[in-house]
Every structure is written in C-alpha cells, then in structure tokens.
Amino acid sequence: MNTAATSSSHSGPGLLAAFIPWIVYWVLVGNVEVSIATLIPLIIVAVQVYRTIQSGRSPKVLEIGTLLVFFVLTIVAFAGEDEFLERWFQPISNAALFLIALVSVLIGKPFALQYAREEVPPEYQNSPLFLATTRVITWVWVAAFAVMTISSLIPPIVDGDATMLDQNDSLSIVCYWVIPIGAIAAAALFTAWYPQQVRNRARAGSSS
Length: 208
What we know:
Elements: H1 13-18, H2 20-28, H3 34-54, H4 61-79, H5 82-106, H6 111-116, H7 128-158, H8 170-207
Helix pairs in contact: 2-3, 3-4, 4-5, 5-7, 7-8
C-alpha cells in the first residue's frame, strides 16, 4: 500500500490557518470585552473567506461555519447582558464549533479532509487509506469540541453564579479553561501523531 496517501493528513498550514480566528478568540475572551473578542475573529475569518474566493477556490465548511458563528456571536456579544455573557458565552461558542465540525461529517465533507486534500497529489485524494485517516482525525476533533462544550456547561449549571472570569473558583477555572484547553491540545497532538502511525503500519504490512 502506498503510504503517500497519508503524508499530509495532519495539521498543515491550511488547517492551522482555519483555526486562527478561534485561537484569537480563545486568547481574547475573558481578557477583553466579549464584543471585542468576537469582532476581531469575525474580521479575520471574513478576510480568510474573501481571500479564498479571490483565489478561485470555494470556501470550506469550517470557514463558512466560523464566519456565520462569529457573526452571530458578535451580535449576541453586543446585545447581551454582561452577566449572561460571562456565564454562558463559553458553552455557546464551544457548542457552535462542535456543531460546525459535526455537520461537516454529516454532510460528507469532513473539515480535516478538505484541508488535507490540498496537500496531497490528486491520485491519493480518494484512496481508502487517506480517507480513513482524515475521517478518524475529524472525529477526534469532533470529540474534543464535545468535551469542551460539556465541560464549559458544568459551572453555570452546577453553580448559578459561576462565570468564565472567576479566578478563585476551582470549578470555573477547570471547566471553563483547563479541560477545554486540554481537549484542544490532545486533539492537536493526535493529529500530528496519528498519520505517522498509519504510515508505519502500512509500511509494515507491505513489507511482510
């Protein structure tokens, strides 16, 4: 089996760039006004979508989903009360990202596959090994976003006064920040590790 089909099924520059609006959001939210934390990522992803269209390519599911989500989140951030935003904004944004990733799978366009296909020769883009590898990676990200959503729902449900700004409350710190960051880190590490394992198994199988 030719292992080149999995050579780019990892977090390459395209996929990393797609997550830049979310990374900026995660850095800003809790440190600046929520409206600013959503408006800046909205501008970034709007520029990304514009550049994608200008290059003659169709925007990907993750790009379109992120643009729509930050458009809605920005409206909510400007219109919502501070108490509501500080308590529920993290679960809402995490759930939105989870839905983008899940919908990409359900409509047959796994977001990891869309980016990986740009990094491999056309003859490998539909190989069973390549498709299976990117499908697993996408599901790992879906699971990570699900963990983030569930975790960030715990503080406001368990403690009605909990907010993402609490610095002395262990439940808020762990569930709003530690677990979600850990889930993202675990998915990123898996994305970097898994394709190499697939290639190693493929080589071992072809040489036996």
